[in-house]
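subagent[fold] <- orchestrator: predict structure for attached chain, return tokens only, no commentary.
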Amino acid sequence: MHILLVLSIMIILSSVPSNQLSSELEQKIGNSLPEIQLPADYTASIFCMDVNGADGLALSSSGDLYAVSEADGCIYSINENGYKEIIAAGFRNPEGIAVSGSGMIYIVEDIEEGRLIGITPSGDIEVITEGLSFPEGVAVTKDGNVLITESSLESGLIFPIFSEVKILNSEGLCSVFSSLYLWSLSDIAVDSSGIVYVCNELSGYGFISASIIRIDPSDGSWNVFCRGLHSCEGICFDVNGEFPMYVVEEDTGGGSGRISIVDEDGVASVFAEGFQNLEDIVVDRSGRIFVSEDTSGRIILIHGDQ
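subagent[fold] -> orchestrator:
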């Protein structure tokens, strides 16, 4: 039955001229999305389509946008017009992505024995470290150190869940924070002062309320910074690592994702709703917001109308 359906679709598509298909795709890109509820004077539109299993997003210092296709195991560069180009492929469940000031792209593979991989500005691929436990998030500090989150949640082990934040610096790979509790650390971000903030993707399930963990990497001290969000998956700061913080909640129920804003006191408020499952979020220097929907494969652009 499924094979017949696929064959039927292929026959239909083969009868449509390629230039017509291109025209239809161009019409979809840029379409407004009235189903998404936004503050006044904001608009959501489709920026890029068909990023299969769209996951991590990252912006370079020059404004280049990169997106992870977890399902296809590749990394896309997306230009200002929303057109994508594969720059690296062959990864296993890539998820987190970050770009250093020098243009080095870092990716982590969310699998047992996962890898931290680097893509140099010239396009060379380097395996930097291996043997990571289902790493999901990666971030780069101002001084070029790399932060990684790990979690044992996907390993199938019985609770408690082991979660850890590691840093890769001149001394090697070191632990910054670890926990044996009902936390599963996903995305990670660093503010302008170097303080680390990590999402707990189990937030909102059962009695688990801790949503964002704040960690001082200089001494390992930490506290629960924000509570009350649901399935926190992606996190970023506004321009230059300043508050407010933006958090994507992957699924608040029935596959519906939303974006919340968190202020410097850890107080959260809803910014936008009506998405499909969300994975990551970035904000560019002009204040434009990009989010990834893994179920639809869309990269969505949110911008002010002023």
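orchestrator: received. Logging for downstream: The two ends are 50 Å apart (CA to CA). The first strand starts at residue 42 and ends at 48.
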